[in-house]
Amino acid sequence: MSRLSFRPRPLDIHKKLPIVKSIKDFEDDEAPASTRNSQLLRLAPEVDSEPQQVPSRRLAAEIPTPQFDVVDTYERDYSCTFNQPTSYLRARGARAELGEFVEYDLDNEDEDWLSEVNEDQKILAPEMLESLIFKLEVLDHKARERAGVITPLGSSISVHLRLDAAIEALQAQPIKYSVLHSVYDYWKEKRERWQKPILRRLQPPPPVNDTNPYNVFRPREKAHRLHTRRMQRRENNVQSFEKLRQVRRNLDQAKSLLEALIKREEKKREVMESEVTLQRMQMKYKHETELLEDSLALPGYLPFSSKFGLSEEEFFDYDDVMTSRPHARSAHVPSLPSYDANLPMVPTVSTKQELKRRYVPHGWPHKLDPLEPVLLFTKPLIPEKLAMAGIIPPSDSFTKNGESSPQYKFHGRIGRGGRIIFDRWNPLLQMPIDCGNSYYTPPKPRPSCN
Amino acid sequence: MGSLDTPTTTENGSAPVPGRGKAPAADGVPLQAARDVEMASEKPMESDQSKKRRMALLPLEVGTRVLCRWRDGKYHPVKVIERRKIPTGDSNEYEYYVHYTEFNRRLDEWVKLEQLDLDSVEAVVDEKVEDKVTSLKMTRHQKRKIDETHVEEGHEELDAASLREHEEFTKVKNIATIELGRYEIETWYFSPFPPEYNDCVKLYFCEFCLNFMKRKEQLQRHMKKCDLKHPPGDEIYRSGTLSMFEVDGKKNKIYGQNLCYLAKLFLDHKTLYYDVDLFLFYVLCECDDRGCHMVGYFSKEKHSEESYNLACILTLPPYQRKGYGKFLIAFSYELSKKEGKVGTPERPLSDLGLLSYRGYWTRVLLDILKKHKGNISIKELSDMTAIKAEDILTTLQSLELIQYRKGQHVICADPKVLDRHLKAAGRGGLEVDVSKLIWTPYKEQG
Fold this sequence. Notes:
heterodimer; A: mainly alpha; three-stranded antiparallel sheet; two-stranded antiparallel ribbon; elongated; B: alpha+beta; SH3 type barrels; five-stranded antiparallel sheet; 12 helices; 18 strands; about 20% strand
């Protein structure tokens, strides 16, 4: 039993199973197969709840069934008139479509009534009665269709065919009026007693929600017949009206959302275009200034495209700056539009010396100092604006000594958030103070300088 | 099958019943009432105790358990399901609808009093059955009692409540016999014919269009005008005298409905709840110069969501045990192969249906295993045969051919073992010759 303590893995139907041809292959395995297998049976997934029927053949012989007999009139009743064609038989249209076939067979009460009518003489042949009842049924059905009366089985289905209409339709029949009249009366009485068409084909199906098991052949519920799109058509009621209204509301909302979105994207595009125009102007100016330069052919000169690549970030930054910075709010100052205030390349400084200092050394417009780290999102301070805002840059104590370009010690810039930042300087060591700021990279010469 | 031999039995049905002298009454059966003593005393000739006691039991209550002489001449235990007065007799004469507790419900029948052994009456009337007659509303306790006592073989796949409901509505066969073409056939089960047919016990079917009538003359008149000699569909298979027709339930509604009414007489768990337009009917016929005579059929949903390739299957009783059922099953799988799908029959399967399917699956799978070289997966078997993987698993497992060895499943295909199983499964009756099947799957039909 201990061998059974492990669970056989459930069988994977995609896994290739070895076929063992001989029982000898198992001989080294002493465990009886049946016990393990019975366990397997219990574990097998989705094993049918069908009873495990054992020796089937014996059982089959023992299942008794009711009996049958041969009908002695068979060979008389069914004629030998069938010639099987050599090709496979094809279906013809249904009887209802063919038209001439009398679908109705007399029932017991029809026969009884007929024998009463006929008594000894032959007034009406049974075949004629079948035909008449069949025609009355079809005419009545058509009358009901014309009247647009649709009733499910269960409620009574009234007769719509009136006598005069019936007589008129049937006058071609070779029957006396009086006989026709009594057939109509008989049919009408029977039809009203049944409260449904006598011809089974014309009887409506029971309603879908009828659960009486004696009523049969109901149409499938709607939920079951969503096979095609046409069948999924909505119903025409308040519920679907509400649903459709909801759909309309949703679509309207989506529409206004999209319109707002379009507006926003157009604005963005405008801003972008202005930015590009601006860049072009800057490049133009730069080229003009370069013409003035002696050191045009500096090898470390960076192509403008790299600057251009930054433009988007700058643009966003610019956006922020424009809306949030107090500095920008002073843009109304007429002599110095804020637009210009943020443009490092607009030559507000006109001396050649100044230009050279700003642009030339490494071709990086922002850079005022070769030692200054590359801070891509910052903007340079503009002394005039600082003055206007009443900010005095820290004075340089080393100015008097004058040896080593003291004006660069306290360079300031406008940080990303719009703050004004000055680098700290250790006056004793004459070195920048590294406060462990991660983006402050220690000054080192750019590779292009080598 | 546990039938009780009685000493007086000689030939089938020739046992003299009322005088079956087991003289002194079996002890322990209490007398039920004294009101019939007077009646009994009218016949002073045999005024012995047992006679009196027997008369006192009459009429038998619904639910009584008693022994009844069956067609084999032997006495079998039965339960009285229903009783009714015999119209032409004494006002106190009844006949009884009994269920042979050893057999399937298909053998339930109306019997005369003389077939019952009144000495064997168990006096405790089965209240549950009586209750069912009058009302369907039962306490939970009563339901449970029925659940415990009432589950029979062949119904295991239905829950007890729906089984009870099913049995209540189909308790008594309405039609006892039918005439269909050459044969007069005893019916097996209730079938919900239209209410106009409530008053009759025998129906006459036209063997071609399957219209049913109450009188023989009506059938004879119908046969003169009936314009069909074969099922009203396309012939899709012909081999010798055997032909298969495909009938669309939507195009031939009345034929489909007639076929369902007829089939229900022989199928216990068939429902006629939904209309036939979503089904195709495959009607198998034997053909001669009188026409194509239906021997059986199977129905199939046009679009099955559960990959059923067969809904109902029936071989008519005169043609049973001749291999037609196996042919129908094989045919249903050939259609599935043409569709490129695997299929499985809709459940529940009847006792006879399960036997046929088990036999078919066994034969098909073992024939492959005998010949196959190398490893094979259940999925591959399924693709080759169009049999659903679950059915393959249960078949192989019930034959103990799938075993768990050294940490993996193997198929044990010892030729001797396979031959033994194949022999037990019986040979498949008639072979389906696929080259003679000319058929387009419904989906692709215009």
